[in-house]
Specification:
four-stranded antiparallel sheet; 9 helices; Rossmann fold; alpha/beta; six-stranded mixed sheet
């Protein structure tokens, strides 16, 4: 479904990505691994259109979207759960969820019951402000907001960062269910190796803006991958 090839991305004169390539297939999870500052988020932002690549191509469902802005990519089914959650702290949980309606036709602007089946805690907190939720609850809200968009590609950028173990387990279970449903492709950015390994079908390891290792998780050389995750 997604084929990003040979992406070069710059912030001013500083090059963030160099010939980086990533793909994602329906019903599969592709994990992007690496230390802080190696370009993982930059690669995701080049896929979502938050930053337009200087060179390279992004193909989505057979169409070239390399120059499309982020809003148009979202309307085509690409949803992004950013690092740090970025929920609207002054809006209620219900209002946060409804922001996902922006990319949907009016007839589809409904929060599916499945959202609350996946995240039952949110049903109890619909009228609480987002800023009053714990970090783990905010992360669940951020993922739920993306799912309201009915995405065909879900990008999760460091979903376990700063989250308590019980919520990490819940998020693991949700991602597993979404994969089993087989309706979307998932890109998972992580530093938590075991979390990514247990969920992923394919992996890509980044270092200094480049993809340095990639392949199928089932034949991954864990020791080789871990050397790019340690400080």
């Amino acid at each position: 479904m997604l084929e990003a090839r040979n992406i070069d991305l710059y912030y001013g004169a500083s090059q963030a990505l160099q010939q980086a390539s990533i793909s994602a297939a329906k019903g599969e999870i592709t994990c992007v691994l690496g230390r802080n500052g190696v370009g993982k988020t930059s690669l995701m932002q080049s896929v979502t259109g938050r930053h337009i690549a200087r060179s390279g191509t992004v193909q989505w469902e057979g169409k070239n979207i390399t120059k499309l802005p982020a809003a148009d990519r979202a309307r085509r089914g690409i949803a992004y759960v950013p690092q740090g959650r970025q929920i609207f702290s002054q809006l209620t949980v219900h209002e946060n969820l409804k922001t996902g309606f922006a990319v949907l036709p009016r007839a589809q602007r409904k929060i599916a019951d499945e959202i609350f089946d996946l995240f039952p805690v949110l049903r109890k907190m619909l009228h609480r402000r987002g800023g009053d939720l714990s970090g783990g609850q905010q992360q669940q809200l951020s993922i739920a907001r993306a799912l309201v968009m009915k995405p065909r590609l879900l990008i999760l950028d460091e979903p376990t960062e700063g989250i308590q173990p019980s919520i990490i387990k819940d998020i693991h279970n949700v991602i597993t269910i979404l994969k089993q449903q087989g309706e979307m492709a998932i890109l998972l950015v992580e530093q938590y190796f075991e979390f990514a390994r247990d969920l992923g079908d394919r992996y890509a390891v980044m270092d200094r803006g480049e993809i340095v290792l990639s392949g199928e998780v089932s034949v991954m050389d864990e020791q080789e991958v871990r050397q790019y995750l340690t400080v």
